[in-house]
Amino acid sequence: MTKIAIAYHSGYGHTQRQAEAVHAGAAAVAGASAKLYAVDALDDAQWAELDAADAIVFGAPTYMGSASAKFKEFMDASSKRWFTQAWKDKLAAGFTTSASQSGDKLATLLQMMVFANQHGMLWAGLGLMPGNNNSQGSVHDLNRLGGFIGAMAQANADQGAEAMLESDLKTATHLGARVAETAAALRRGRN
Ligand SMILES: Cc1cc2nc3c(=O)[nH]c(=O)nc-3n(C[C@H](O)[C@H](O)[C@H](O)COP(=O)(O)O)c2cc1C
């Protein structure tokens, strides 16, 4: 069984919904198990499960142009793992939600990619061509925000998570599936 951990923070539920979409994509891959971890409430047993995972997908809302402070607390707390490079050669990927179309989401994904590489993890990008970038495109396209290094979602500031666009959720589901398939391939290769 390939274990996929989705380690995320969400202040108001939008990134949580995106995390659930990543989870659905990973869990649908044959031979994979997926589990959500709220990083602001991790106990020792859950830290140990992250240590045992084949892949960790990181998720945070973009607050003030970077990952939320709660997610940064998790990043800093993970330094105990960094000392022993406990997460070295695990697969990693990332996702973020923000209110603006750009909103500097790229900065959050770059922050996660740097973080993963500090841990010696292997970063998996989104692996999708950009949508909604030509005259035939629309907001309903997969990867409509045109990210490459991770999954982006945009949620209107005055609406709840239930109003999030299916296209963004399907993009997140794609990332979950890609991570689970790649983690399984890595596991087969290592075995
Ligand atoms: C403190 C704070 C800072 C924010 N900064 C940004 C930002 O830099 N860019 C942006 O597009 N949206 C920003 N937003 C909006 C959130 O990214 C957006 O509401 C997102 O959907 C929240 O996700 P969550 O419900 O998972 O917390 C900010 C919201 C808060 C509360």
Chain-averaged pLDDT: 98
Count of β-strands: 7
End-to-end separation:
13 Å
CATH architecture: 3-Layer(aba) Sandwich
**Beta-strand fraction estimate:** 15-25%
User: Can you tell me the residue ranges where pLDDT is under 50 for at least 5 consecutive residues?
Assistant: none
Major sheet description = 7 strands, mixed
As a percent range, the share of helical residues equals: 40-55%
CATH H-tier superfamily: Flavodoxin domain
Bound compounds = flavin mononucleotide
Principal-axis shape equals globular
Helix/strand-derived class? Answer: alpha/beta
Task: Describe this entry's structure for a reader.
GO terms for molecular function: FMN binding; NAD(P)H dehydrogenase (quinone) activity. It comes from Azospira restricta. This is Flavoprotein WrbA. It holds the Pfam family FMN_red. The structure is a single chain. The chain is α/β, with parallel strands linked by helices and about 190 residues long. The chain has a single domain (about 1-190), classed as Flavodoxin domain (Rossmann fold, 3-Layer(aba) Sandwich), CATH 3.40.50. The protein is about 40% helix and about 20% strand. It contains six helices and seven strands; from the N terminus they run E-H-E-H-E-E-H-H-E-H-E-E-H. It has helices at about 15-25, 45-50, 70-75, 80-85, 105-120, 165-190, and strands at about 1-10, 30-40, 55-65, 65, 90-100, 120-125, 150-155. Strands 1, 2, 3, 4, 5, 6 and 7 form a seven-stranded mixed beta sheet that branches. It is globular. The mean pLDDT is about 100. The protein binds flavin mononucleotide.
